[in-house]
Model the fold of this input.
Amino acid sequence: MATYQDQASELRKLMQGMSDTSGASSHDEPAAAAGPRARIMAVTSGKGGVGKTNLSVNLAVRLATMGRRVVLLDADLGLANADVLLNLSIRANLAHVIAGRKNIDQAMVEAPGGFTLVPGASGLAQMANLAPDERRRLMAMMRDLATNHDLVIIDTGAGIGPNVLSFLLAADELLVVTTPEPTSITDAYALIKAVARQRENIPVSLLVNMVRDRAEGRQVYERINAVCKRFLNMTLSDAGHVVSDARVPQGVRRRTPFIIDTPDAPASLCIGQLAHKLDRHAAEPRGRGFFRNMASWLGR
Done:
């Protein structure tokens, strides 16, 4: 049985437009897509309750309004809920695609704000336990997403379980979300450490949510970055911060992205700043392995 590290490595090759060099036949794995492809960014966190999914949804909205073809894959296989935040009625999800009951086009839905959502599947089996056919369908789905969009945002579950690590190790870059709370900071570092042990030189950016102001966000970033430099020999990119804002929980209750409901709210402006950092690189040529060594793309 393949480990989740093996699956992540092969999935990453597929996303990067590479051919499988392991000697597997085309019957065993789908052919790698040629030509330009999307950036693959995994949004993750060390613990739950830090607003990761809400931030992913609102970031997808903002980038879509800037003219980018964005797909959000809800890959929280334990508590998938992006569709709930968007007030969408779902007929098919990731589990249906992996099982072969639906194709990816049948699972994708147009979300408010103009991006595409692939709904998640709560309770899906561990990635390492997927049958060969399920594994091939998952990889083919990721290939299709990466070749038909500018940016694929993977909203992972929280923590360092096998399902989460499978997606993190396959992505081009990670956006780790934390808050100023000590437990959130500790768990964010633990997640970064777990990923760094499995894959060297992976680009990691840190976004600090629910802060009082920019200074608090910067303080948290510097604290975590200093520990990563000292013990992991890696430097994190500073993705910025999102301030605490009453409009955020209001949007959750209304099941409407806060950046649509209140585009001029402080939290919405913070999301806009992050989106513009991402968009600076959207026009750059994409090819095989182009983003493999972009360790500081977000910090430019």
